Amino acid sequence: MKMVTRANLTAWLIAMIAAGFIEVDTVAAATYMVGDGLGWTVPSNVSYYQSWAASKTFMVGDKLSFNWTGTHNVAEVSKAEYDNCTKVVSILGSPGDIQLLKGGSHYYICTVDSHCQLGQKLSITVGSSTAAPTSPSNSASSTAFHSSVLVPAFITIACLNLLCHNTRH
Ligand SMILES: *[C@@H]1O[C@H](CO)[C@@H](O)[C@H](O)[C@H]1NC(C)=O
Ligand SMILES: *[C@@H]1O[C@H](CO)[C@@H](O)[C@H](O)[C@H]1NC(C)=O
Ligand SMILES: *[C@@H]1O[C@H](CO)[C@@H](O)[C@H](O)[C@H]1NC(C)=O
Ligand SMILES: [Cu+2]
User: Signal peptide span per the entry (predicted)?
Assistant: First the structure.
């Protein structure tokens, strides 16, 4: 009777994992270093950051890391402001990460001098998926659940079944 209960529990856990109700940590949010080795600066041509973004798939929960030395900043702006290189006042004045919290189009510019006109501007499209965490806290709590509860529970049940088999033979 006990044996049946353990086997059922094991089967239930496997079924839950297979059905995707319990996510095994395979999908992790990515951090993209904007411009890779060049960082965030006035590039060699006006399409530099569009070329950089073209090969990437951005998802909700990912982070853009804007890194620079010298005088730059980064502002998230509207499409009109991006097209026009409008000198908005809401800027991030020192290098840092920006997390992509919403799907859709996102626009970033540097408002220093004519840096934006010279190509220090980035537009990306962010995709959302049902598996992607909608906030950092969701991601943190689900990760904690996997590592601290699920895996030890699974291992314990697997070991108990093994012990039962060994004692019976
Ligand atoms: C980014 O910043 C770190 C220091 O915070 C530096 O070591 C690194 O070289 C920078 N990378 C780029 C691409 O600017
Ligand atoms: C701009 O520079 C990038 C990186 O060097 C390059 O891949 C891209 O082809 C360039 N674009 C034009 C229009 O020159
Ligand atoms: C475009 O730029 C000009 C000059 O900086 C500014 O006066 C105007 O308000 C901007 N338009 C938009 C839509 O941002
Ligand atoms: Cu700049």
Answer: 1-29
Neighbouring residues of 120: CB distance < 8 A, sequence distance ≥ 6: 40, 41, 42, 43, 49, 72, 109, 110
48 Cα to the center of ligand 2, angstroms = 5
To the question of pTM greater than 0.90 for the whole model, the response is no
- The CATH superfamily holding the domain 27-141 is Cupredoxins -  blue copper proteins (2.60.40.420)
Per-residue pLDDT tens for 88-136?
Answer: 999 999 999 999 999 999 999 999 999 999 999 999 999 987 554 444 4
Q: How far is CA 34 from the centre of its chain?
A: 14
CB atoms within 10 A of CB 27: 14
Residues with CB under 6 A from ligand 3: 80-81, 84, 86
